[in-house]
Amino acid sequence: MRPTPPVPLTRAPAPAPAPATTTVGIVGGGPAGLLLARLLHRSGIDSVVLESRDRAYVERRQRAGILEQGTADTLRECGAGERMDRQGLVHHGIHLRYDGRSHRVDFPALTGRSVLVYAQTEVVKDLIALQLADGGPLVFGARALAVHGADTARPVIRYAHGGREHTLTCDYVVGCDGFHGVTRDAVPGRARRTYERGYPYSWLGVLADVPPSCDELVYAHSARGFALFSMRSPTVSRLYLQVPNGTDPADWPDERIWDELDARSATDGPWELARGPITAKSVLPMRSVVTEPMRYGRVLLAGDAAHIVPPTGAKGLNLAASDVTELARAFARLKDTGATDLLDGWSAGCLRRVWRAEHFSYFMTTTLHTDPAQSAFDTRLQIAQLDRIASAPHAAAELAENYTGLPLARFAPAAVAPA
Ligand code: RFL
Ligand code: PHB
After folding, report:
1. Which of 13, 162, 212, 409 maximizes the CB count within 10 A of its CB?
2. What is the DSSP letter of 309?
3. Tens of pLDDT along 327-352?
4. Is position 311 annotated as part of the catalytic site?
5. Is the CB of 120 inside a 6 Å radius of any atom of ligand 2?
6. DSSP 3-state assignment of 225?
7. pTM, whole model, 2 decimals?
8. How far apart are the first and last CA of the chain?
């Protein structure tokens, strides 16, 4: 009989939930972090994703709904397109409603492109399932505390998991930890600059178990404030109302929400707003923020960790996807050829695209919302701008191009270099 092993006097430390080293350490398992991990895996580059929340929370977080064609293509390329192509709704236009009128912006006619309505919750579920089945480690409940050594050859992520601290030593760290993440702090204050703008209103967002009242999205300008009629599926509506900053959703019982949506979408044409049970309500503030540069040494910031847009232009998730698509290409080139040129140009290339999206989101937001301080003159200017889009195809094309997504190639250095 074997002797019984001695009982240890002190409890052995819990094993680390992930390897202690990796090539690319990814902080944050939102869409940016998950998509980056998939793209790196496809190129044979190992990574570890550390996500502070649990899987159920990440999969349920209600956010974006519109995917540009380029974002959908990237998801397909990395194997996450099957359910998206079955369940996503292809949209060929949006409606602008203002001054009692409605105008449809026809995307394919103006740009040759369309968008896909497929919720961020579903994108995240698809990417998590793939990563767990066939990828590198994705650790839930792992909260990054700090990133050290950005300007060294081996940056380290210090993180908490299971009540203990661990470290992950990396060749590169990518902060995909959103607006409230910690990776940005790895860049010394003197090496970064933040540009920001607030807005004097928020959105009250609701989910309702009722078929959408229109088969495309309706963006409504109204003296009472902006309203957006979106959807999650043929049976679930996603609706937004402009509300004052600091609004408590509890002050908005369901009937008040439906009445206000009705009042803000009034039109001379045919329109009936279908009402149904509201299943979720939340308030989200609006802001525009850009941190420059997006790289410092071996730490890179992608998605909401580097920039935030107000949601009116539906750009946030798409920008995050473009950031990591280009970053994965740069890492693949480094691995295959040893060349760092793409990595070295990554931040500047991203920022050109980011500022275009910042401008578009600002334009959509300020054209469609009613600032509590705005004058009757300001309102007439908004209507004149909307009329211009409704009557001049090149004005509509400018909106449609930005909404459906400008091709990444448009932001290659050669495309913007002075002649
Ligand atoms: P996320 O989604 O915020 O993910 C960051 C992840 O990092 C984790 N994290 C940490 N993990 C480890 N350690 C730490 N210390 C951590 N700190 C944070 C978080 O738990 C989280 O899982 O950022 P990411 O990946 O950059 O993705 C960005 C998008 O989520 C965001 O831009 C969009 O949702 C914005 N957005 C929209 N974008 C679009 O392209 N189209 C849309 O139609 C659209 N609609 C929206 C939106 C955002 C909205 N809200 C709620 C702000 C509609 C809404 C209502
Ligand atoms: C959404 O469906 O959540 C959505 C759609 C379009 C936007 C913003 C949010 O501009």
Report:
1. 212
2. -
3. 999 999 999 999 999 999 999 999 99
4. yes
5. no
6. coil
7. 0.93
8. 84
